[in-house]
Amino acid sequence: MSRHLAKALGLVVGVGLMAACASGSNTNSGQKFSGVTVRVVTFTGPQIAEPLQRRAPDFEKATGAKVQIITVPFSDLYQKVLTDFATKTNSYDATVFDPQWMGDYVPPGYLEDLTDRVKNDSTLQWDDIAPFFRDFSATFKGKVYTIPLDGDFQMVYYRKDLLQKDGLKAPETWQDYIDIARHFQGKDLNGDGKADYGSCLAMKRSAQSYWAWISIASAFLQSQGTKQGAFFDLNNMQPLTNNPGAAAALDVYKQLSKIGPPTQLNDDVGNSRGLFITGRCALSLDWGDIGTLAIDKTQSKVEDKVGAVILPGSKQVLDRSTGQLADCNATLCPYAVNGVNHAPFAAFGGWSGAINKASSAKVKDAAFAFLSYMSAPKQSGEDVTIGRTGFNPYRTSQFTNLDEWTKAGMSTQAANDYLGAIKSSLQSPNMVLDLRIPQSAYYQQTALDTALAQFLAGELNVNQTMNQITSQWNKKTDDLGRQAQLDSYKASLSVTK
Amino acid sequence: MSSQTSERVLRAATSRWRPIGARLDRSAGSVFILPAVLVILGFSIFPLLASLYVSLSRLSFSEGGVDLKFVGLDNYAKLIVGVDQTHFLGVVGPITPVSIAVLAAAYGLLALLLYRYITGPNRTAGGLVGRVVTVVIAGALLWLIANTILTSGRPGTLVVTIVYVGVDVAVQYLLGLGLALLVVQHLPGRRFFRVVFLLPMMITPVGVAYLFQMLTDTSKGPLYPLWARFGLTDVSWVTNPWGARLAVMIGDVWQWTPFIFIILLAAIETLPHELVEAAVVDGASRWNVFWRITFPQILPATTTVVLIRLIEGFKIIDLPNVLTNGGPGTATESLTLHAYTIWRALDIGGSAAVAYMLLLLVTFVSVTYVNLFRRRVAALT
After folding, report:
1. Can you name the CATH fold of B77-92+153-380?
2. B266 in helix, strand or coil?
3. Is the ipTM above a cut-off of 0.90?
4. What is the distance between the alpha carbons of residues A132 and A113, in angstroms, rounded to a whole number?
5. What is the CATH number of the domain that holds A296?
6. Which chain A residues touch B87 with a CB distance below 8 Å?
7. Beta-carbon separation of B331 and A79 below 8 A
8. Which positions in chain A touch B91 (Cβ < 8 Å)?
9. Is the residue at A336 inside a domain?
């Protein structure tokens, strides 16, 4: 009796299973990833998360893979994903994160090597991505670990209408920037009868201020191309934070803290962008965001009045052999333009997608397909023209195809201006790669950021600031192993010697 | 005979079993609370010990996992004598007449308290050692506070936290007591105000921080017309160190005064009327009624509520974190925020070391407070 029952049960279960399989293959026939779920973690947004969430259903329709976008606050993202991978919890299959953190993620082997995939994937069009992002931003020790989704570097925005009216040229050096800012400080710049500001920068602590300082310092510290690096001496890992170049950058930074809104020391980029696009500032330093926000009709008062240029440079740079500032010449500044050394800073590096090595093969395939879909020219070409996506251009096609930009509301002139600034930065062989060594978060977000805030608040003078940054960086380097950190630093710059 | 025997056997058995039963009865209490104790051990003592170990080590990520390397007291050394010293302890400036005067007065008071204990009738060896240790630690903290705040130096996160707690709890207590005394009067609308006064406590601290961020913004925000009238729109007071600390303290006082208010209100409302009535009949002034009758009777509630606020106050983080991110410079950074900023960069050992320093400070202040005030109050009542 019981044997009969077991047989019957087995039959029912077997038929059921077959039916389930049959129906599964019927409804999803031709779908490569049906039944696969990819868990992607990124920050709360709305930027970055928005385009991922918006496009996930389309991707699912096309491939059958379900993409879950999990968001966490930006300040928690680094340690949350890192502890998840390190403790083998593996609750995320992919992350859209700051490629700066590769120094922490790649050496312990948490990320999937994507070198072969990117070269063999036709959707992605790898070669369309600008060389800096391919060769430096996505690469660590010669292998590709991330797919760029965003092109991040800082540039200077200026009010074209105001500068033209007063016969001023866009700033070429940081001294020009200060002079122009002084010229406009306290004048009414948007016709509301109130005094406005020469320059608006984000100088709040624990926000984005240290990137602005590095943008200034780069001009003084790196002149021999990306591989020279702007943070450490490649021979002994001594920080480049205690020299006349760093002092000059601190001096510029301090001067700028006094030419701007009274709240500047407590402003983050949200504040400085808001002030700029409502016409209250003549100059600002930012990522690509102001360009697209300025054409947002709902909030911008400076439509078609905004120009953008590559980060200002310096006519004097640090000569590392003497440790002194020296005038630019052909050997010291091989990439100088008009005798000015520009070192555009790829601050942050641009949000990029990476895949958890511990996920199953099928999930990794689906995750790669999703990231590739997001980065493909068709999708990304549209996303980079929308301010709220937080994505900035990083592909050659995004510079050559002006249609997307004019469709988004930019005049041809404005598009040319904006893209011109980005192009001249991207084509610069002297672009500065952001710091990518283990615990770069400590070096920058904790040590550098705090010292800069203290410097602006008057708690430290120039020398004390440089000493504090240098001694804290050295302590951390020694704690983690000087040689290991140096190797990582060289690996991030793809320096093989 | 047989019945006698069985009775004896029974008695013997009972007498043999009685102590065991009694012992079981006695230990039943312990057995019943054992699960709770184990839970507390698991959730409280274990993390405490684990974090102590973490504070003595350095975390790094290696091939296939996490490495915890034991580094001894290195994380503490960083705070006290190393690269984080000025951040944690602050910078000591050259002495000024004010700092000397304040220190002299404070040390005089400490010496007097110690002298009175030594010459008093209740002294014990243990008590004396405890008091000497207290005086030494308190003296060191006072020295640090006086030489960083009253000179051209600057306070570190340790002193800033102490200032927050000292000022906040004192002001909150005075305001809370005042409001409680006001609400027990038979004034019109007192029920309405009783609820209104409680509202700030219900708001999440991050919400309060955003609220004050808007209120302190002189160039925009709801108070803009007011600032504009006084021509202060180009002055930002949250970019000045003491201005920013003041903003944090105002926010904290606003939020937590209701807590003290509600406890003191409950204490005052349960007081018997007879004493007050008798005093009034005898012609006592209102001040005398408050100072000699009401206040002594609410002292137990006072000491408890102040202790709770002291311990809570040391953990302040939301307000400075949202309002100023600890800036300008490190001016508004509390110890908890200090630990948080280090933790965010995954320096978990360094962060645990700061947290342990905070734990030591809170324990020291609480134990001192309990010994100095609560026992005395308990003796009074």
Report:
1. MetI-like fold (1.10.3720)
2. helix
3. no
4. 19
5. 3.40.190.10
6. 450
7. no
8. 459
9. yes
